[in-house]
## 1
Amino acid sequence: MQGNSQSRISLPKSDSLKKKYWTGSRKETLLGWLFIAPETIGIVVLGAFPLLFSLYLSFTDWDLVSGLKGINYVGFDNYIQLFQESKFYITLKNNLLYTAATVPLSIIIALVIAVVIHSVLYFKGYFKVVFFIPYIATTVAVAAVFSVLFHPSQGVINNLLMSFGIMDPPKWLGSTDFALWSIIIIAVWQVIGYNVVIYLAGLTAIPDDLYEAAEIDGANKWKQFTRITVPMLGTTTFFLTITSVINSFKVFDLVAFLTGGGPRNATNVLVYYLYEEGFQKFRMGYAATLSWVLFIVIGIITLLTVRMQRNQY
Amino acid sequence: MAQLKISKIIVTLLMGLLSLVFLSPLLWMLSAASKIEKDVMKFPVQWIPTDWNLINNFQTVWYGKVPFGHYYMNSIKIALITTALTLVFSSMAGFSFAKMKFRYKNVVFFMLLTFFMIPAESTLVPRYVLIKWLGLYNTHAALIVMTAFSIPLTFLMRQFMLGINQEFIEAGKIDGAGLFRIYWQIVLPMAKPILATAGILKFMWSWNDYQNPLIFLVDSKLYTVPLGIQSFQGMYSTSYAAIMMAAVSAILPLLLVFIILQKQVIKGIAVGGVKG
């Protein structure tokens, strides 16, 4: 409102008498729309529209090769097939295990590191940077490094385990029991620094007098941590949990580069399964179905966590 | 007091040790990249190589059978163009959302907030169809078009620009400047810190992107660095020293930029909580 009156004042008097069509507020409306247009159009064309298009495709048997004429409506066939496919349940189970492991591990370890950095350390700047480095490192390059470190017979990790007396160390990426865990280890290692930075920002917002008061009341450090730090970081933890859970359902790079979903689907996850169906077998209709299942799974989890958070307060 | 300081020093030393263990995979990568092949897998690890082979490994990667330098240029080109476009689009939208007044603005903003929940992975199939239909399949333009729009960075811009005092904008209007000039000559210079933060983040995401190039590029001439590492590992599967050199080449430039501009990056992450 302020803006409109100001810009009217700046117009020459003769113009305002003629009641120009392009008044300040009309101009501002036009420019406002023009300014948001590129971003909004981009998001609609490349985000919202494709989501609806994939909903349509999920009810067809399209295989790409047969062209647009090959699109046949098949009703819920894809969905029925998906829920009967054992591979879908395998990828879902793997994905849930990946989520259940990476989310708490990366959050708890990061919380401890952040609290130590925040409260008791010299060289805070150095530690912040060091723990953040894996996060900016190219995932594929990191994966290449770990694939050598995890080498079953010659790798550093197994040599280390054997020097500790573990004579039969796991075969890591080559073993059906440990491949997914190898990927979990790499993923947690990479994301901890991000969580630490977010936690450090949350920690600076906790007023010092809380700790001083607790100190006077005779609360020890552990009590201060559990009674002040953890509850005061509630919103931060909530934010990290949601984003981590959502991201855990998008895991792709490590799987695609390191294992290709193997051995025997031991590391196959939802997005990789989608990739296999859509871009290796070109079953576009089926892959679109998976896209929507993924979208709904992520949507439900987001809503559930938001609901849980609300009930808590 | 003196005792307190000693415990602080001890904790710092312990954390220092832990941070080295934490970084050990990357330190190992650096040392392996400078070794001769038969020393790479030696145990206990030779952290400082006895036989230096840095130059040879460098040549294998950069002047060998895989045109790594070419992939590098591709990645730089794509990341720079994407970053520039993203900065333009997101700062324009951010400015409009923060400082302009027009009807339905909040509706559009809420719409973007909702679209933010759409995972990019859910739209891979239709985007593939769309890109093919546009004739952009197997081009760098496909990657640029698909990643030039960023909702989180738009939010970050808006957040920052909300903090710019309205009086600067009113003063510009009184001086007879149009809104575009106000955006270009008043707001953008003031927004330099956030532009730097968003720029680095975007460059990083673009550089590290693996999924989009994997799906939308087939011609190996168009490959980016992550795909380059993949084909490198395929071709030199047992030359670990060379593979580590390729990994170092991918990580190092980004790492240097980060170390120089760490404050901007960390602030951006901490304030906006933005994530690729």
Note: The mean pLDDT of chain A is 87.
## 2
Amino acid sequence: MVLWMLMLAFAGLTAALGLDLWSHPAQRPSIPLVDASFLSNATARVSAADLVKSGGDTSGLECYTCHDKKETVKLTFDTNGGIVLPKEHIDIAGTNSEGAFMPMAHGRNDRNNNCFNCHNETNLETLQTRDGRELKITESPQLCGSCHGPTYRDWEAGVHGRTSGYWDRALGPIDRKVCTSCHNPHAPKFQPWKPAPRPHALHPVMAGVGQEEKPH
Amino acid sequence: MIKGARNYFTFLRRCARIAFVGDWRYYAWMGVLSIIVLVGINAYARQFVNGLIVTGMSDQVSWGVYIANFTFIVGVAAAAAMLVIPVYIYDNKELHDLVIFGELLAVAAILMCLAFVAVDLGRPDRFWHLIPGIGEFNFPHSMLSWDVIVLNGYLLLNVHICGYLLYCRYRGRTPAKWFYIPFVFIAIGWAISIHTVTAFLYVGLGGRPFWNSSIVGPRFIASAFTAGPALIILALQVIRRVANYQIADKALLTLRSIVQVSMLINVFLLVNEVFKEFYSGTMHVASSEYLFFGLHGHHALVPWIWTAIVFNLVAMFILVLPLSHSLKWLNAACLLAIVGIWIEKGMGLVVPGFIPTQLGEMVEYTPSVNETLVCLGIWAFGLLCYTVFLRMSIPILQGQLCQANEQAGARAAGH
Amino acid sequence: MSEPVSRPNGHPSGAAGHEGMDRRSFLRTSAVLASGMAALAASLAPLRNLRDFPSMERFLQKHYKELTPPEMRKVLDRITREVETQYGLRPEVRDYKPMDGVEFVYCLNLTRCIGCRKCVHACVAENNQSRDPEIQYIRVLRMPHGSLDLEKSDPNYAPDTVPEKGFFYMPVQCQQCKKPPCVKVCPVRATWQQADGITVIDYDWCIGCRYCEAACPYFARRFNWTRPWIPKDRINLNMSYLGNRPRRQGVMEKCHFCIQRTRAGRYPACLEVCPAGARKFGNILDPESEVSYIMKNKRVFIQLKEEVGTSPRFFYYFDV
């Protein structure tokens, strides 16, 4: 009697297993591929040195196409003492996230609000340091380092800023970036970035995804 | 020699045959267990194909109910050999035959342990990498390698002792003391070692402060020696009822005293642990806080651990009172103790070690349906093995299955 | 209790005489057995979907340290074929050995990290990690100013822009410890440390027990919970045996300092992509390297969880 029931039970189990009635794994939401911009090694800007090396359009560095060699440039200041960018150079400090042009922003408390702190008023295509050295535009790191000493020393050692290429110089060249590859000299502070998405949990429900971020 | 081998094969064949014979209750029990085992096999097949993603584990909580059950069952296996101590050290004759039941439980338990570990592996097809000499066996550095040695050694020890004693009884011979007594004494020490090595798996991890504590080893032994004999007390009463096997109440009460003392030690160690975690208030208590009170809004384990503590305390009180001399109360206490310790060792030890993660992240864990079915399948498999072992050994011990009636048995079997 | 042994099952009566088995009980027991076998077959049915069952060659493959050069050549060829079959593209798979006189150290400047997570994704792309389910070796933690309490960390921050005021960001990946607990606990020696300090994994030897994942104090190790998925158009074909060749279901993986790049003298992918230049890497045994400069000149640096005794080769520092 029991054996018949057993047989029925086994037969029922066979059917149930065959019909695959349970234990279907929960559908996980598919994870989108990350945007390719997060994989890019490109620097935020192209420095003058890189521009020259790559043979790009250097017309922006030829100041005397517009300026007159005989005339001195007059700087305009606003009522707060901040420098006013002329309309031809309105874009030199970059744009903010809404697309509006930013004002000059190198140095706090108006410490550095004079173009000719860095640019040479007698030769607009060169730069000058405070101790009177004249530098080519492609030699700008020395100008930056003339004020930003500790950072410059770190940069020389390879510890500030970006490096790529070979750590083993015997096997290949190292590729050092200069200051202006990352920093806009007229507004050196980095703008905030959009970060890549947060990590995706293996079991979203158990990681509490979808709940409000709890304060720690 | 050939005759000896032939005798042995006849013995094995008769044992195997008798496992398929029984009354309706036997068939019903074995049938239900077989069904659960088959459902478990199916669940494991899905896991084998799709990977361990079908469980509830993740990188944050990378061990779950498989290892939790493994830890609990190793304790049961260790404690099953506890019966050996009163018999052979204190020369308690009443428990003599019961030692075999205890050791058979140990064998079934070790088989369950091996099953739980096997289903937890990501690549079980590479099991041979663990074999010393053929694979790369990281002994003595890895505690898992120690565990492999002690568990398999314990299995062999118990199979030898039981097998030898049962075969001698079958043949009607007195067993030669030198062939099993030394192994019995080795088994006593080895039983403690299997559970200590399992404890050391956890204790040795400096990166997990919840586990990296010297109290884990003693707590393992204390809780194992509570739950193991408690299980045996219940199992013996079932055997007594179902198999009409004479088991004196005195044997059960001897086991009761083991459970009683071990439970007291277990609760004392719990108090120690709780004090150390919460009084000093250092930063390392995050896992304990999560377990007992919840942390940062996550509190899945809190009801479980408090249930376990209540069960353990109630069991302890019942055991301490003379009330537990009555079998009804003793059984209740045993059941509470087993469930309480199962929760404590499983969800109360393995899972909180992972929450929060090493970097402070809180990801909780719930076993999936598939995972649970695999666990049930392995538990059913263990019970199936133990039932088969008992089905074979009880007639031998009672004298119904012996060499003397081989011919009669053969005649009845239609040879 | 038990019935007398007069109704055995399964075996038709052969010898002459005596009770034997009658046809009814034979049919009954056979029926039970047959239905049991059918249930067993049905329970094993999911196995028909099994892909990637190892060939005999793969099953018997020896541990990395025991492979002779010709055997390694065969293994690399096999991996090349497998990748070509699966992705339709031919990779270059090599076995990069550690360089002499080199011990790698990684330094990360916490003043500079802005938490953009570009390093996470550059690593994923370079090292052929599974995109679904997601495996990421680097975990960027957002920490509040004033505390190194990891309990206060948050890896799941998702603001509109970073960095956020009042927080600093700390990426964590394998620290390539001098005393690695993962190496100590692996039961089959599938993970070990090589001479240049990188702790490597032989993906074809790992049994997937995840003891190393439990032992690691830094949440550095990852497990393949199912078959990994790499999009064909983003696979990196420059592969190494111990590094970034595609892994299988059921094995561990982790950051290996981009073996295929660093042992060829190049910087790891996470370093090259960092827009803030926060990451520095090199040979600590070379006094002219950037990392030697940092260790000599920067005043504050921390090793995560120094008290655990792992002696990581990963140093966090602050400028000035």
Note: Chain A touches chain B through 21 residues (CB under 8 Å).
